[in-house]
Amino acid sequence: LLAAGSAPAMAGELPRIVNQPGHQALIVDGAPYLMLGAQVNNSSAWPAMLPKVWPMIEQLHANTVEVPIAWEQIEPVEGQFDFSFLDTLLAQARTHQVHLVLLWFGTWKNTAPGYAPAWVKLDNKRFPRMIDEKGETVYALSPFAKTTLDADRKAFVALMTHLKAADPDNTVIMMQVENETGTYGTVRDHSPAADKAFAAPAPAALVRRMGGKPGPWAQAFGKDADEYFHAWAIASYVDAVAKAGKAVKPLPMYANAALSDAFKPQDPKTYAAGGPTHHVIDVWKVAAPSIDVLGPDIYKSDFATYMKYLELYGRADNPLFVPETGNAKDYARFFFPVVGRHGIGFSPFGMDSTGFVNFPLGAAKLDAETVDAFAANYRLFRPMERVWAKLAYEGKTWGVAEPTDPAANHMQMLELGRWKATLGFGQGQFGTDAPKGNAEPSGGVAIAELSPNEYLVTGYHARVTFDLAAAKPGEHMILDRVEEGHYDAQGQWVFDRLWNGDQTDFGLNFTSAPQVLKVRLATYR
Ligand code: N0T
To answer: Ligand 1 in contact with 4 (CB < 6 A)?
Structure first.
C-alpha cells in the first residue's frame, strides 16, 4: 500500500492523495504529511510582496504556503507565458524550507473573472458570460463556452508544464483548480447552449448517484435541477482543466468551496450556487473525478456551524481539508478537530504583513496575539507532523475544540474504543468547579492511539480525564504512566519527565504551554 512514516523520506516521489477505506492521507516524499498551512492575501503573489510574506510564515511555523497563480499574470498576452513570479516563489520557498500549494485563479475567482487576463474578461464575444433567466448578461463567465475552457486549460497546462521542469523535487505539493466557483445571484446559465443541455437527458451516472428520475434535467431533479445542472457544468469544466494538468504532472488537485448554510436549505441565489457546496458534493464527485478533494472555506467561527462543516466535508470519499479559514483568534482552536478527524491540512487565510485584513471574515487586526494563536498550534505539531500524519492515516486520532454553546456545558467527550476522554474547558487545574469555558474560546485537544491502552495527548487550555468507556463491575481506571516529552527531528520520542501527583491526580491540564504527553492507561479491581 505505502510505506507510511518510513524514514528516510523518498524525495522525488510525486505527492498524492490516498483515499481508501479507513485510510486517508496526503503523501509527500513517500509518507503521510500534515499540512500546517497559511494562505497569503489575494494580491500578495508578486515578487515585491514576498518580503512581507516570509516573516509571517516563519512566525507561524507553517510548513506549507498557499499562493495564488493568476491567469492574468502568467498569460498577459495570449500565448505568451511569463513564469517569473513562480520561479521567484519556488526559489524562495526552498530557501525557507516550506512546501507550496498553488491556487489557480483562472476563469473563476470567487466566481468572477477578475483574475482572467484582459484579453479574456473584456472579450464577451469570444469568452461569453452567463445569461440569467431574464436574458440579462451575468458577471460570471459561462461554463458552456468551449473557447473559454480551451483557453483556461491551455494556460493551466502551460503552468503544469513549467512546474514539471522547474520543480523536480515537488516543492509544490498540491494545486487548487479555480477559486470558489459557482455564481452569486443566478442559479444556472440560461444561454442557448445551456438551455439546450438542460433540455437534454441528465447524465445516467448522475441520476443514479442522486436518486433522480431518468430524463431531462427538470424531470430528473425537480426543484434541485437548476443547481445540479450548474454544479455539473462547472465541475465538468474544472475537471477538464485539472485532468489536462494532471496529464502533464499528476499532482493532487482540489477545489475549494464558498459555503452555503450548514444546517438548512438556503436560497441558491444567495450563495455561490454550482460550486462544491455540501449538498452538491455528490454531483461534483461524479462530474470531477480528477479533483481529489473538495475543501470548505470556513469563515464562521460558531462552534456548532464549524463542526457541522467538518462533518459534511470529512467523508469516506473526501479527505478532510480546510484550505481556508478565518484568521481571527477564535478560529485557531478548530485546528484540533481537523487533525483529530484525520484532516490532511488546515490553513488560515490572509497570513502576510501587506496590511490587508478581511474582517469580518477574519481578524480585525493581525496583531501578535492573533498570529500567535495559530503559531501555537503549529509549534506544537511541527516537530511531530510526520508522526501525527501517520497515526491519522491509520485512523486512530481524535480531536475537539472548545464549544461556545452554553448548553454544551463546556464539556466534550471523545469515544476512543475501550476508553473515553472527557474534556473540560475553563476549570481550575484541580477541576473542582464546573467547566465554564475559557475567557475566550481557545481550548483544543487532540488524541492519537499509539498502541492499545497508550495515547498521545496534547492540546491547549483544556483539562483531560480518561475513563473506561464501559467499566465492568468493580473495574477501575488507573493512569499507569504519564510521560511528558517531545519528538526529535527523526520522529523519535524523547522523554522529558513523568507527570504524577498534582499533575495527574485530578486530570491532565493543558495550559498555554506546548505539552505533549504519552499516557498509558490500565485497570485495577
Ligand atoms: C475567500 C476569501 C478570499 C459571511 C475572502 C470567502 C479568498 C476566497 N472568499 O477573504 O477572497 O480568495 O476564497 C467568501 C466568503 C463570503 C461569505 C460571506 C458570509
So the answer is: no
